[in-house]
């Protein structure tokens, strides 16, 4: 046991050293501010956003084609045009936006981000380009109950995790219970199903929901806030002074020409396009793309998971203590940490040193995770092979390699096929976690459809049905091959 703990500690230390070196290298590279020069040389301005927050940023489905639109997107396009570069948009969860720019995944983050004092300690901000104010969404049936923010004392308030609204609700509404969720769409659904009493949200977004959903109403927040912290600003990595100064010139023009009014009007037109037809069939291409990515990730993770699992299982049977220790340490460490953390570590942590795309990062993380579980399944299968089989193989003069290849492993796989099948089925469902880094799998597309259509439950039902179809089809396929193995035996 002591050796195992020691090996696990060594693995953690290696990871810590690896990250420290990566951060040091990044810091050294950024010691001289070349943020603007780097973008112009690349010819691209990479921006991250969370496109589930109309009218700031959301996806529109027009003629079967999907694209991200909204006031913030128009602001970003103006900035890119003034810099004479191409705008590249990456999507991910709101609470990952600042991490993305800190780790070099993007040049700037936009998404109705308020430049609070706490956030300014971690990232740089542009000037505020729009101040929409704060509001609360409530159910229409509660209009007489919650006439103002004073009536919300002691109520359950919802707010998006990591936002200004979450902190304000905790600080300024006495005796209230604040519940945070990653997606505003989840919060709206929680409100409509009476899991929360009110939802703290930016005023333009609240207005958008009220216009498109008659079951919701809006009340003013009544907050008295510092003008320097309230309003939407663009976030940058610390030390990006040249880039911030260039962007501020564009923001000055946006304010002087009152362009945000035009951008909001344009966003309103796009929102009407989305709500003309909110049937799930109209969004079939979204779900189809989600299924495509989910299957792709699952297939790749299955292949590499089995490969890693076999290698780790064989390492566990090695006579070399350090090889066994390495395999045990890896297996215990991976199985002892959540897949979500592993996905974020591969994308953001390793991304400090090597810039890995979101899809590849998701595949790597899910494969590494699956490999640890498959290793234990295969190890159990190898142990289940009767000792007489090994003795018989040795009597025939087979080498240990041939014995494992032709005698042990074939029988082991036959014994563990049901357990291995369950792991493959679980992979399809667990791969949904990659949506947190912006991979357009089924869960990611589900949230986009919910944001676009203002329908909370039906997209979830469609996703459930699609997951069931995929897992049921795989179950039948695995059962078919299991039957053939038994017949062959």
From TrEMBL:
Family: Belongs to the binding-protein-dependent transport system permease family. HisMQ subfamily.
Domain of life where this protein originates: Bacteria
Membrane association type: Multi-pass membrane protein
High-level lineage: Bacteria, Bacillati, Bacillota, Bacilli, Lactobacillales
Record's protein name: ABC transporter permease
Transmembrane segments: 7-24, 295-318, 339-360, 456-478
SMART domains, per database record: PBPb
NCBIfam families: HEQRo_perm_3TM
Subcellular locations according to the entry: Cell membrane
InterPro entries: AA_ABC_transptr_permease_3TM, ArtM/GltK/GlnP/TcyL/YhdX-like, MetI-like, MetI-like_sf, Solute-binding_3/MltF_N
Keyword terms, alphabetized: Amino-acid transport, Cell membrane, Membrane, Transmembrane, Transmembrane helix, Transport
Pfam families, per the entry: BPD_transp_1, SBP_bac_3
Organism this protein belongs to: Lentilactobacillus fungorum
PANTHER family found in the cross-reference section: GLUTAMINE TRANSPORT SYSTEM PERMEASE PROTEIN GLNP, MEMBRANE COMPONENT OF AMINO ACID ABC TRANSPORTER
Every ABC transmembrane type-1 domain range: 291-478
Gene: glnPH2
